[in-house]
Amino acid sequence: MARPSQIAEKRRELLPIVAKAFADLGYRRTTTSQLAERCKVQENILYRLWPDKKAMFIAAIEHVYDLSLAVWKRLLIKGEKGKSGAERLLEYEASHHGEFGHYRIVFAGLSETDDPDIQAALAGMYQRFQRFVREQVVAHRGNRNASSLPDPALAAWALVGLGTVANIGRELGLLNDRQRRRLMAEIGQVLL
Questions:
Q1: Residue 173 within any structural domain of the chain
Q2: CA 142 to CA 137: how far, in whole Å?
Q3: Residue 137 belongs to some domain of the structure
Q4: Domain count, the chain
Q5: Per-residue three-class SS string for the chain
Q6: How far is the C-alpha of 4 from the C-alpha of 13, rounded, in Å?
Q7: What is the dihedral of CA 43, 47, 52, 58, to 10 degrees?
Q8: Torsion, Cα of 12, 17, 21, 27 (10° steps)
Q9: Is residue 52 part of a domain?
Q10: For 62-96, how does the pLDDT look when each residue is reduced to its tens digit (9 = 90+)?
């Protein structure tokens, strides 16, 4: 029987630390020396796991998506009588969206979109978020006549954008916790 890859296991172990560093410092200000220090490893260990800093950053972008998806899937499995999956996700995000600061990785990446690899990673992440949210919107609406409602694909993009606006409000101190919760819950419900 083949042994599990130690490289893959070490990446899984260190990726949350790497992501936190990028969230705290941004892409450009983070050095591989700082990453190694935070991970409590030598720099060469990081280079055995990823070819360069950009690959570490792209892995952090993927980490943002993977964490969100894992939380959302747990919420969908759990279920709650009388509420659709979309409503449960919206309720959760209204209370918890952005609380770990992972959006700062995405914001840092947006300033690096002149790099085609980072641009592709961000575009792919946003497209996967939109697809997942669209599926929830479609399931929420079911077979009822939704002709007066926004197209599910556009509603999903608007919901993704709503999360971004909530994070901007948090980052710049424009919205307090209560206002962000209301924004997500009330406007999100209109979009559903």
A1: yes
A2: 9
A3: yes
A4: 1
A5: CCCCCHHHHHHHHHHHHHHHHHHHHHHHHCCHHHHHHHHCCCHHHHHHHCCCHHHHHHHHHHHHHHHHHHHHHHHHHHCCCCCCHHHHHHHHHHHHCCCCCCHHHHHHHHCCCCCHHHHHHHHHHHHHHHHHHHHHHHHHHCCCCCCCCCCHHHHHHHHHHHHHHHHHHHHHCCCCHHHHHHHHHHHHHHHC
A6: 14
A7: -100
A8: -10
A9: no
A10: 999 999 999 999 888 876 677 888 888 888 888 88
Reported residue count of the chain is 192
Domain of 105 in residue numbering reads as 58-191
Q: Which amino acid is at 168?
A: I
What pTM was computed for the model?
0.89
Identify whether 119 is part of a domain.
yes
Q: What is the pLDDT of residue 4?
A: 63
CA–CA distance, 68 with 31 (Å, rounded to integer): 26
The single residue listed with the structure tokens 């969206």 is: 97
Structure tokens at 92: 């959760």
> Which two three-digit tokens encode residue 175?
């919205």
